[in-house]
Amino acid sequence: MDSCSKYGKYLERVNHNGLFADVSHVSVTSVGKDHSARGVLDIHPSTLNPLGIVHGGALVTLADTVAGTAAFTTGQACVTLDCAMQYLAPARGAQIFCTAVPKKLGRTVLVYDTQLTDEAGRLVAAGIYTFFATGPADLSVLD
Fold first, then answer.
1. pLDDT of amino acid 17
2. Cβ atoms within 10 A of the Cβ of 8, count?
3. Which residue in 27, 75, 94, 130 is deepest, having the highest Cβ count within 10 Å?
4. Does the CA dihedral 119-121-125-130 come out positive or negative?
5. Cα distance between residue 116 and residue 22, in whole Å
6. Who contacts 2 (Cβ-Cβ below 8 Å, separation ≥6)?
């Protein structure tokens, strides 16, 4: 599952610990050596808006979780400083996929581009996420 094996425990924590991403039906599926990440949102009735379309908040949760996990692979503990999401098409189906790729990896500021696609590969949303590095990541939380 994880292309950077040292982050396997981190992916397990993100995906299966009962915290926000887990209960929001978001899973990070892989991280890359280039500090990118991929993830998926499993669509459930709780992720839909009253029109039967995936709620924008569910899409933001997916993108923020995937980009934040990618940022963690830099060795920094990071918090989201800013985000902007563009909704481009109604998100429907069983799953929505996200990729997060670094745009800038600075000492204290990290910027990621995200793209969210449906099962047909159609772009449904795109975003930019800015993270503030608070210091070295404490990997002992993974033990």
1. 77
2. 13
3. 27
4. positive
5. 18
6. 8, 11, 30, 31
- All domains of the chain, ordered by start, with CATH? 5-138 (3.10.129.10)
Q: Which amino acid is at 9?
A: K
Report the alpha-carbon distance of residue 138 to residue 38 in Å, rounded. 22
Helices 56-72 and 8-15 cross at an angle (nearest 10°) of 160
- How do residues 105-125 score in pLDDT, each as one tens digit? 999 999 999 999 999 999 999
Measured in degrees and rounded to the nearest 5, phi and psi for residue 100 equal -125, 125
CA neighbours closer than 13 Å in the CB half-sphere of residue 7: 25
pTM of the model: 0.92
**Which amino acid is located at 42 in the chain?**
D
